[in-house]
Write a structure and sequence with these properties.
The chain is built from seven helices and four strands, in the order E-H-E-H-H-E-H-E-H-H-H. By secondary structure, it is an alpha/beta fold. It is globular.
Length: about 150
């Protein structure tokens, strides 16, 4: 399965989700292809230092360069998991033909009340990483259960 994680700038939430999903999916015996992109990213920008530090706790050395979400990403992905409802609205607005493959991570897990808030605004990168760690583990488990 090809999974794309999407946030706003592709510098915090979606790179953390990409990296944490890789670790968690491997623990669940999955070999999914995974990428991330941002609806308003600056191509080539690095992950924030705070995001890099937040995932070190999980044994991850985050080396990431932001990518702007484009048609290539959307055609590539089997499943597009976005961080929040605003990102979902953006993605579906840009690529209406892909609406059936676009869900917030919370929606995918039947928890539509769960959104991953941008830690840029509250500085809680560790809390954000912990939430993403939990959610990405559950995504891998759900995919295993569905297969």
């Amino acid at each position: 399965m090809k999974i794309l994680f999407v946030c706003y700038a592709n510098m915090c939430r979606s790179p953390m989700a990409e990296a944490l999903y890789r670790v968690n999916s491997a623990k669940e015996g999955r070999t999914d292809d995974v990428r991330s992109a941002g609806t308003h990213a600056y191509d080539g920008a690095g992950a924030t230092g705070e995001a890099v530090q937040a995932v070190k706790k999980y044994g991850i050395e985050l080396r990431h360069r932001a990518e702007v979400l484009d048609e290539w990403h959307m055609k590539w992905a089997d499943l597009v998991l976005v961080t929040d409802k605003e990102r979902k609205d953006d993605v579906v607005g840009y690529f209406p033909w892909a609406w059936g493959r676009v869900k917030t991570i919370g929606e995918y897990l039947d928890r539509s009340d769960v959104e991953i808030k941008d830690p840029v605004y509250d500085g809680n990168y560790e809390g954000c990483a912990a939430l993403i760690d939990d959610l990405t583990r559950k995504v891998a488990q759900k995919l295993n259960a569905e297969e």
